[in-house]
Amino acid sequence: AQSVSQHNHHVILSEAASLELGCNYSYGGTVNLFWYVQYPGQHLQLLLKYFSGDPLVKGIKGFEAEFIKSKFSFNLRKPSVQWSDTAEYFCAVNAQGTYKYIFGTGTRLKVLA
Amino acid sequence: NAGVTQTPKFRILKIGQSMTLQCAQDMNHNYMYWYRQDPGMGLKLIYYSVGAGITDKGEVPNGYNVSRSTTEDFPLRLELAAPSQTSVYFCASTPVSGRAGDTQYFGPGTRLTVL
Description:
heterodimer, A: globular, B: mainly beta, 7-stranded mixed beta sheet
């Protein structure tokens, strides 16, 4: 069965610090990978996604993620966080050709001004 | 486009009451989903639909029912509310599941409390 692990449940950073959130998945086949963000009081929205090609993908607001197939990982990064990045971040996996999207448990990021 | 809309935004139910959470999308998406989000648990799939007239169970379907009579609408029914159903419910849709890079579009959520 597919699963997604996000090891950091809560992260607190100061503004301008660098961010890396871990995401590992278990599935042997071809996958689509996503990071979604949920700002306080808002619904989930797509941050970035990978489905083929360059394993380094860039998303909105300066975020990027790298797909490392050998490690089954899709870690999210941002060189310099801002207070407005305070949110909950979810990694999700979709096995290509299937209906199902598996979400991780989320990482709550708090950025201190 | 309004995207994915959900009503109501908030609701408090008493144990044993029933209600329907409404979800609609105007993007002509085939696939629609219902998730529940509990603190520290991520999103769990309740039911999904691949098109009008076709629905199937997800990971946590007990206590819920769905129908899909049109492409646009995908209501979720709670028949006998229980405190364990206190959660935030999200509806989502995708154009076609499984295609490369299909993004899920989420509604704003319904916060349900069962007392």
